[in-house]
Specification:
The protein is α+β, with helices and mostly antiparallel strands. It folds into 2 domains: 6-273, CorA soluble domain-like (Beta Polymerase, domain 2), CATH 3.30.460.20; 284-339, Up-down Bundle (Methane Monooxygenase Hydroxylase, Chain G, domain 1). It is 52% helix and 19% strand. A hairpin with a 4-residue loop joins strand 6 (92-95) and strand 7 (100-110). Helix 4 (139-149) packs across helix 5 (157-191), helix 5 (157-191) runs parallel beside helix 7 and helix 6 (199-227) packs antiparallel against helix 7 (242-302). It is rod-shaped, with a radius of gyration of 35 Å. The two termini are 70 Å apart. It comes from Bradyrhizobium archetypum.
Length: 343
């Protein structure tokens, strides 16, 4: 679905309907009373007066869309509109005057694929309308759009928002599967004593787990708080099944935390193996130094420019000196072997 301007029939200040273009409208759906979704063409007027639920999704990076989202057009309380147009980057859910509004996190979408970067969906919903917006393309709302186009039924505004949150969990679950597969590959290389350095890959996986955990824990807290609010006065169409959604997120977050711990343990094991390899290299260098030290001493003695050096009058002096060099190295080797330095 291309991001392009649409025309809509919005209520004017005097209550009459007027046709006007809505810049920044990404897509629009009408959910009929039987739950059947209808995709509305964005290049035609959108009647607000019909029955059912209307979902309008905006590109908030478009300044003209911000100009259209006025109290007269939205018909929602001022705090809800203020949060919709704000740049708050923490998750929250509020209720006021039969209106639910808030901010939830989602993963950014790039060429049809979920990335590991975080974006935020802002929304305001009443019984008749759900207005949502984002500054960058998001995965969950796009998945919800495709589900509605495929005929997925929703019976209320709360059910539509629950569907979006479910797709948030599905997207993060997919990222978690990719992280788990990558961890399996790293673990196989670490356990097989591969010489490849996996520290950078493990660092990236731990960072991904940390991001997912922060998003999930924040959304869980928001849903738990919403569940414990006094919502008896809230209309049934706006009552989120926050407990059920939080339970789904609890299980997913538990999996993410386990993978983060697993990546940390793999990173520690990798560091131990790297230290062992470094210690082995230092040990080899130390042995070579010990073996070469006696021959160096012999050559140093015979290189002294003094009188009375042994073998100085023999024709075979070089051979005797070479033999001393070999014997000194052999003696050093036998001593280190007896001590246990060389296994």
């Amino acid at each position: 679905m291309q991001d392009q301007p649409a025309a809509a029939l919005s209520p004017s200040r005097d209550g009459t309907a007027r046709s006007s273009p809505i810049a920044g409208l990404v897509w629009a759906f009408r959910i009929h009373a039987d739950g059947v979704p209808e995709s509305l063409p964005v290049d035609r007027p959108i009647p607000f007066s019909q029955d059912g639920l209307l979902w309008l999704h905006f590109n908030l990076a478009d300044a003209r869309a911000l100009q259209w989202l006025t109290p007269a057009n939205l018909g929602v309380p001022a705090p809800a509109r203020a949060l919709l147009l704000s740049k708050d980057n923490y998750q929250q859910l509020h209720t006021v005057e039969d209106c639910v509004y808030g901010v939830i996190s989602d993963l950014l979408r790039d060429v049809g694929e979920a990335t590991e970067d975080t974006g935020y969906l802002r929304f305001v919903m009443t019984e008749q309308i759900l207005v949502s917006g984002r500054h960058h393309a998001l995965c969950a709302v796009d998945a919800t759009r495709r589900a509605l186009e495929a005929g997925h039924r929703v019976d209320s505004a709360a059910a539509l928002l629950e569907t979006i949150v479910e797709h948030v969990a599905d997207t993060m679950d997919g990222i978690a599967d990719r992280v788990a597969q990558a961890l399996d590959g790293v673990e196989e290389k670490v356990l097989s004593d591969s010489t490849a350095d996996q520290r950078q890959e493990l660092g990236r996986l731990r960072r991904t787990c940390g991001r997912l955990h922060r998003q999930l824990s924040g959304l869980r807290i928001v849903l738990h708080r919403f569940e414990h609010k006094h919502l008896d006065d809230l209309k049934p169409a706006l009552r989120l099944r926050a407990g059920k959604l939080a339970q789904r997120l609890d299980g997913l977050d538990h999996t993410i935390v386990e993978m983060r711990e697993r990546s940390r343990l793999l990173q520690e094991e990798l560091h131990l193996k790297i230290e062992e390899q470094g210690n082995d290299n230092i040990r080899v260098l130390s042995i070579l130094t010990a073996l070469l030290l006696p021959p160096t001493l012999v050559t140093g003695v015979f290189g002294m420019n003094t009188k009375g050096l042994p073998f100085s009058d023999l024709e075979t002096a070089f051979l005797w000196a070479a033999l001393l060099i070999v014997l000194s190295s052999l003696a050093a080797y036998l001593i280190m072997k007896r001590v246990g330095i060389i296994r």
